[in-house]
Amino acid sequence: MATTWIAAHRAAVVNPHEGFKLFEVRGFADRTVRQAIRPAGGGDALRVRLSNRYGTTPLEIGGAHLARRTEGSGIDPATDIVLLFDGTTNVTVPPGEEIVSDPVVQAVTAGEELVLSLYLPGDTGLSTYSAIPYDIGYAVPGNQLTAEVLHDAEELPTGHFVTGIDVRAPEGTRIAVAFGDSWIEGMNTTPGTGSSFPAQLNRRLTHGWIVNQGISANRLLTDEIGDHLLARVERDVLDVPGVSHVIVHIGLNDLGLPGAIAFPEPGKPPTADDLITGLTALADRFHAAGLKVIGSTVGPYAGTVYPGYDTEEGQAERLRVNEWLGGDDHPFDAIVDLAAAVADPDQPTRIREEFNSGDGLHVNDAGAKALADAVDLALLAL
Length: 382
Description:
Elements: E1 3-10, E2 31-37, E3 46-51, E4 59-61, E5 63-68, E6 81-82, E7 91-93, E8 98-100, E9 114-120, E10 129-130, E11 137-141, E12 154-156, E13 159-160, E14 162-170, E15 175-180, H1 182-185, H2 197-202, E16 209-214, H3 229-238, E17 243-249, H4 252-262, H5 272-288, E18 292-296, H6 312-325, E19 334-336, H7 338-342, E20 343-344, E21 347-351, H8 365-373
Parallel strand pairs: 15-16, 15-17, 17-18, 18-19
Antiparallel strand pairs: 1-14, 2-9, 2-11, 3-8, 3-14, 4-7, 5-6, 5-9, 10-13, 11-12, 20-21
Helix pairs in contact: 3-5, 5-6
């Protein structure tokens, strides 16, 4: 059977040098960093992708190991494998560049928990990072690549340097990319449980799978947090091997962040026409690449705890965008009404209580399941 490389895990990354920061940024020196990864699909081999995209100094990797996870920072030593890069264990990644490991020929099963351990001997500078990784990571002093458990480890709520895993799968395997903001990435869902909206939707599929390219606080039109969505199209969707479908949720932060950043001074959000123009350009780029594009309504957020985020002007523009998405003039192949899936029926601008993570802006695990259940699987004929 002919095979090809397909993305099985993705983590969209953020520039730590941005002026506006919602998440802790940091670097490492003489540290072993251990991070868990759960591939969404399987194959007969894998390769790991590492990034120094936003680094300002060379990233020295003094060793990289992959193993199956037990619990917490623990690994099964019997499964420990040394990763190679062009046949060597040590590699230096120049600023702005990425690397892919040599293939590891072993069976990979969808949903299994793998652990990537990196030894970083030098000063990495601020790391290229992801805001919401699959699970909490760990860092300890020195080279502890083969340690069964990392004792007295520092916990890492953000991901570092890892952008994905590819698997060698049967030719013709097709996947979807979930693309957008925190509702895609899974902010405020339970770490390590695969409870994000895309992960829960993935479990409903019988063919293919979904990889997550969300960035919490990301915007359609404006950089920070992360490059804006239109700027991420090629790198985070078109270059993903195996992609045939895209699921998009974006717009919350375009409407809310201007006020939150400027608070207590009023911040002006983009107009609905601005967002409609951007969403149209987004869909057009995907269609030009031959992809099927599934859009979604912009979720509710009235009453959020974040000062300045919820404004009358922003709510009015959200309503106009959602009315356009609910009509016949939008350019998407289909629209999923994610807003309605989790809105309070009596106050539709708010997340219903049983789906509210507590901040009025993000859904909890049950809310993410409601989002996943709102998607007609006929739209994902992968």
